[in-house]
Amino acid sequence: MTLPPPPASGVPTPAFFLAGGTGISAETLGIMIIKQFPSVPFNVRKIPFITTVERAQEIVVLMDAVRTETVQPLVFSTVADEAVRAVLQQTTCAFIDLFGSHLDTVERVLHVNAAHNVGSIHGVGDQGLYEARMKAIDYAMEHDDAQSVKKLDQADLILIAPSRCGKTPTSMYLALQHGLKVANYPLVEEDFESHQLPAPIRAYPSKCFGITSTAARLSQVRGERRPGSRYASMAQVTYELRRAETLYAMHRIPYVSSASMSVEEMAALILQSMENGPR
């Protein structure tokens, strides 16, 4: 395939994320790759549930219509079905097969043919895993922002942080993607003054993981919710963040900053900390 010349500066490169299922894997892997080219603007589009040859043919027409003499779209695919994948590979765009290109290698090593089962890729085929994730989500919702302090002994993890540091999205991500029962608990003024963990979680320091941020970022986030308030002032957020980090250090609680990290990156660090065992 002859590639077109580089696009004019500032012209976004189309990037398609194709999948036979939800598209989470294709999007995650594709974004991880295109982020390695920060100087290039991208126009991304996820197309999930491509399960038939007819749908694949429609997608090929759609993608090829975007290609011009100066614009070469990138296509990232995790489609498992061989017939559907064969059609998608007929595109004139640059096709990056995130699934099939590695499957042959694994088959050769294991001496077993792959099932090409989309359900198993996303965990739906494992009913036990699916039910565990649903229970974890229910647990995270019930224990969001200290709404409930019951069954904290059942928590795999307890996230603690000043308000608006990112406890809820991190809790939900860990529940949905990893099936962890995560409670999250806000740190408030009395906790900073006493230097003690909040009473309901005081018995579980080994389950705790802290989140912090930068004063500028936290002030901005709080300001969107309560503009001009003491709650969002630089003085207040600076005080809370310093006290929170002191509290984490006193109780040997690991922590991560949400200021410049995605939820996925934070989750990976938290999981790594959990794997390292008790502190």
Automatic annotation (TrEMBL):
It comes from the Bacteria. It catalyses: [pyruvate, water dikinase]-phosphate + phosphate + H(+) = [pyruvate, water dikinase] + diphosphate; [pyruvate, water dikinase] + ADP = [pyruvate, water dikinase]-phosphate + AMP + H(+). ADP binds at A161, P162, S163, R164, C165, G166, K167, T168. Pfam families: Kinase-PPPase (PF03618). GO terms for molecular function: ADP binding; ATP binding; phosphotransferase activity, phosphate group as acceptor; protein serine/threonine kinase activity. Its EC number is 2.7.11.33, 2.7.4.28. The keyword Transferase applies. It is an enzyme of class 2 (transferase). InterPro entries: Kinase-pyrophosphorylase, PSRP. Keywords: Kinase, Nucleotide-binding, Serine/threonine-protein kinase, Transferase. Bifunctional serine/threonine kinase and phosphorylase involved in the regulation of the phosphoenolpyruvate synthase (PEPS) by catalyzing its phosphorylation/dephosphorylation. Belongs to the pyruvate, phosphate/water dikinase regulatory protein family. PSRP subfamily. PANTHER family: PYRUVATE, PHOSPHATE DIKINASE REGULATORY PROTEIN 1, CHLOROPLASTIC. This is Putative phosphoenolpyruvate synthase regulatory protein. It comes from Luteipulveratus mongoliensis.
